[in-house]
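step=encode ok
step=design start
structure_in=
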């Protein structure tokens, strides 16, 4: 597959650039087991105070204590609720795991080469995931392919952009990166996210990794099994194309 006149790509993580099973089978349980101990270890610190305030606002309970906070976070984790306070504490806990080298972020083998090709051709590279921006940075900085953060220009999450199935989130990213919608390509494994992106003029490519139980195709969107199955061309100022 070839796409021309591309100036920016935005990529999902789970199921697109990294394994969904790694998130659900490794990262989520790792954080869930450490909610209570994280609060105890950081009690009174700025991060603790900010998280407690965010939790009280999100739950609508101004009297929420640590026990209630852990209960709420555990429930959201079990239900995979995309709640910003949950994403914040998961990122904080994972950061400690990455720093201790007890965690690594999973990245598919084709991703580093694709990012390097796009960087070489001058195409901007951004990540957009429901996980916090800090968690995204750690994922790529401590990946199974080493530190890939140098291959990325920026990150967006629920707080900085909004929900991934809301078209307004993609408008917000367009404003932030300064690239016209029609020159931006979004990669995701979720049809509703791709629909939201195309609703505001982005181009979209579905990524369905081999063995995905949902099948090899995403209805209504061109689908590839890996990033090395697509080539992006950036039109230069002189009208020529740089290929990636």
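sequence_out=
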């Amino acid at each position: 597959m070839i796409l021309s006149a591309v100036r920016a790509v935005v990529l999902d993580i789970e199921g697109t650039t990294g394994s969904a099973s790694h998130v659900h089978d490794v990262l989520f349980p790792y954080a869930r087991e450490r909610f209570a101990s994280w609060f105890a270890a950081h009690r009174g610190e700025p991060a603790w105070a900010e998280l407690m305030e965010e939790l009280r606002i999100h739950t609508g309970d101004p009297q929420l204590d640590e026990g209630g906070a852990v209960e709420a976070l555990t429930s959201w984790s079990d239900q995979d609720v995309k709640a910003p306070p949950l994403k914040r504490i998961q990122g904080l806990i994972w950061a400690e795991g990455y720093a201790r080298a007890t965690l690594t972020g999973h990245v598919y083998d084709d991703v580093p080469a694709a990012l390097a090709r796009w960087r070489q051709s001058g195409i901007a590279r951004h990540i957009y995931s429901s996980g916090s921006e800090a968690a995204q940075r750690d994922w790529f900085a401590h990946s199974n392919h080493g530190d890939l953060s140098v291959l990325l220009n920026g990150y967006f999450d629920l707080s900085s952009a909004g929900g991934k199935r809301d078209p307004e989130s993609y408008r917000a990213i367009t404003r932030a990166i300064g690239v016209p919608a029609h020159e931006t390509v979004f990669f995701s494994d979720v049809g509703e996210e791709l629909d939201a992106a195309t609703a505001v003029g982005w181009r979209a490519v579905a990524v369905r990794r081999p063995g995905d139980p949902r099948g090899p195709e995403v209805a209504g969107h061109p689908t590839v099994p890996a990033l090395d199955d697509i080539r992006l061309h950036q039109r230069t100022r002189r009208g020529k194309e740089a290929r990636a």
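step=design ok
step=annotate ok -> Residues 84-99 form the longest helix (16 residues).
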